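Hi U.,

Before I forget, here's the chain from the pilot set. I'm dumping it here mostly so it's searchable later in email.
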Amino acid sequence: MVNVIAAGTAALDTQTRHTRQRVRRTLWFNSYPNGCCVGEFWSSTSRDGRLFELVSTNQSGALKIADCNGLFVDTDGVGYNIYSSEAADHHISIEVLSSNYSTFVGENLGAFPERYVEGPILFRRGGCVYASFGSCNCFARAGTGMLVYRARSVLGPWVRQPFDLNCNSTDPDAICGVYGDRQTGGINIKAQGISYSEIPLANGSTVILWQGERWQTAPFNNPDCPDECRKPVGPCAPDPRYVKGHGLNYYIPLRFSDDGSVLPLEPFVDSFTLDVLVDENYNDSACAQTMGGNNVVNSDTRGPRQRNKS
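Structure:
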């Protein structure tokens, strides 16, 4: 998910999925024309991943005023959009996508019971599908919790794991947060989960890499402002040089128990190592060969890279 500010007013949450069936990318925008967080969905598609053609605007699922979304394509090729709805007190629900993943088909799979939650992620690992989300955050630097549900199918039934997995609370029913209606504190990793990646490893297994947005870590952030939903005055008066999209992200492989449960996030680590699968057929010169022009940098196995002088 990439957060973009357009024309100074519209914040766009985007998430892209490279489809397995064909070379096409589908991009969904969660657009806020009047600021956070009264949003609507836009979608577009691309053949090359660079130029996108708009497919639909102001698209709405069963729960209105969309806020935060995640895309998921299951092993059978069916696509889903998991999102939070401000009109429904920030409940999370799942909407079925069309065969080209660019529109809704009008089938909503129901809402999860927790209110005032956002940042939904949907993924599969083996025979289980997982849905993860946390308390509403509003770009708070202190992060938010991590609730996890599990099911055999996206259709459910869904079962919630006990405990908030990014919180130090000993209450199995806890929902930890630092903003608005829920200010419990106790957050472990100071980040908000927004997406995941499936990373194939050399041993044939796959890692689920969790991505958390570390809000207000960009240069020129105001250290005295805890979140970005307050009036931009006093301690929250913004520095004009501050750009939200220049902030940091936190990536960490999720850990699973033998029964498939997601284990709690461990304390912050600076680095980790993955023995990833290398594609022996990958050719990094293919892109340069198609570009042409005087500024092409060619790879030369006999020495350092040299600029094309033709």
